[in-house]
Amino acid sequence: MPTSGNAVIGQSGGPTAVINQSLVGAVYALQASIAANENKVSKILGAHHAVAGIINDDYIDLTDRDPDFLDRLANTPSSALGSSRDKPDAAYCQRIFESFAKQDVRYFFYAGGNDSSDTCRIIAEMAADQGYDLTAYHIPKTIDNDLMVNDHTPGFGSAAKFVAQAFMGDNLDNAALPGIKINVVMGRHAGFLTAASVLGRRPGTDDGPHLVYVPEADFSEEKFLADVQRVYTKLGRCLIAVSEGIHDADGTPMMVKLQEDVEQDAHGNVQLSGSGALGDILSDLVKTKLGQKLNQKLRVRADTFGYLQRSFVGCASEVDQAEARRCGHEAVKHALAGDHKSGSIAMIRQPGSDYKIDYQRIEIKQVAALTKHLDPSYITDGCDIAESFVHYAAPIVGELPVIETF
Amino acid sequence: MPTSGNAVIGQSGGPTAVINQSLVGAVYALQASIAANENKVSKILGAHHAVAGIINDDYIDLTDRDPDFLDRLANTPSSALGSSRDKPDAAYCQRIFESFAKQDVRYFFYAGGNDSSDTCRIIAEMAADQGYDLTAYHIPKTIDNDLMVNDHTPGFGSAAKFVAQAFMGDNLDNAALPGIKINVVMGRHAGFLTAASVLGRRPGTDDGPHLVYVPEADFSEEKFLADVQRVYTKLGRCLIAVSEGIHDADGTPMMVKLQEDVEQDAHGNVQLSGSGALGDILSDLVKTKLGQKLNQKLRVRADTFGYLQRSFVGCASEVDQAEARRCGHEAVKHALAGDHKSGSIAMIRQPGSDYKIDYQRIEIKQVAALTKHLDPSYITDGCDIAESFVHYAAPIVGELPVIETF
User: How many helices (H) and strands (E) does chain B have?
Assistant: First the structure.
């Protein structure tokens, strides 16, 4: 006899353009099970602000939401249920079980990145330890694209599309009013999103970004300045993509190295987003060290793309949307099948020239609290991204707008 | 007998998403005149990097460019000919005439904002003084929307659409992970673009931005902090739009007041864009003054939208595109008609409920070096934008993506 009870879905960590697709994919699959009288799920509950909502018995009933509403919700960026950055400890998890028991929750779905999958893993393990019958599935999500096992993650394609379109436009801007321009892209430990800055470069042109710095390559001020000088001397301009998480050879983030006041969040991470400091520091560095050498009137500017990368409306990748929806569906399918008490869904790319994704159930511990990095072969000379990365990322991002120049 | 010679087109100042539409609109009209054997224009020359290209005899021949190329170019953001921030003095203008005489240039079209229209005016007046037969027309362009006489300017609608979509997304992000978020929007003296932050707010919701600060209302730190505290206390979050050009009651920009090191550009303007400093300063102010009072773990973040507002590909307003194209066309039409040796094109909105624009020839001096400001009736309580502004701006921006929330 199958486990019967209620289902809770939560959305954790940073929002993305498609995390509501995963929510809606899961809701549709659960509604289908209810409609088929499978006697597994009674109510579908959304955790309002993730684990923080659960411990306060704060749920949004999703059981009878109609498809028109759900489809509009799926196409809306950000986490519609609300998110949380709480990282539950043992006492916190105990309160989660109390709420689950009170609500007769037997299925738990948690969409998030590597921190969030670890939360899901802890809850699943504690449930097993305490003999509480719970099936817990992690649904992959992160614009950072840094989950192990997965070819890529839901959220990355849309954020990458935003970054690519931003660089396409800023490259044209930099060509119109030449100077040195530094754009800081999200990415604490993994450089996938920063690498996406090259996706709109047209072969055989002098399109930028001309320099790309990712956390996977140690950052050196000396090399950076030499790179900038080389490009500027050749082209009379230089467009630069920089991950917020670039660090020196000792692993010290440049943000920390170059700035005294830093703020730490609840996970013990230094605040890298939501501030223009890194861009401004690098901009000052170039002005100070190269201004005299290259051009007295050197224009050096920095922009930090910030939260727009994950939240901008009207720029989602259609492939990303469909895949995120499917991940929500697959998590429910495996959970209701009842073969395993926990798992995560991984997107595996099939070999061959055509782009095709397999959705496989894996153990949560295969992704929890681990970070995937850019393959070293994608990084050239420590300051650029290889064409092989474009082949990898282009199908995930989809078609980019056509541009023309003289 | 009409004046006969060559035509030069230049693009000046900051790029926009639609300045290439104006270029192409002018080129098509000039090509039509050539095709009709009107014997007014022989060659159509693009000034490579505006006035800086002219004094170096650096032109791109546009005479025989085919429509497929031109249509792709029109849909590409930024200034395809290249721009310049040079502000010509008398000696510089003399070099412009020397180049014009050498190239037999008799028609000059210059797309730009108020600084650029002033350049166009000076060149037209010097031509008249020196007895050089030149017809000079200014084509309106600026994302700031601050040209006098005009209902609005080409470039504003697309930049406003970007800002509106950015705030729509960031409002959802701020609702998912509540805190205080400050977004800095371009606008040195005029707050139109910052006001566009409200265009995606849905009536009857708690959608942000909840506070909007524009240069037309004096900025006071005390009022700002009180406003933020009031909104945060009520909603548990606060999304704020701030013009880069906000200033105190004495007219001192907050950027200057709050920061020691400032950089000035060739026009004597303080650098406000291409830096995250203002956002970070305001963010620190809120953390320092309200952190203890409101919430020890208060999340305060700032993003500066930067050059994306004028250059992002794939986000142009269709209305803006069509109007910019038409302005280029109208400038050529009036110049070739030969009734005036100079002029500018103004977009005048017809009275009535339907949105309709008249294109009128005006004197350059009606727009040159002047700044239009937000009507005071659009600003409420010094910290918000009235619904009347939405009625004004919505037809210019066009439809925004549909979003859904619980």
Answer: 13, 13
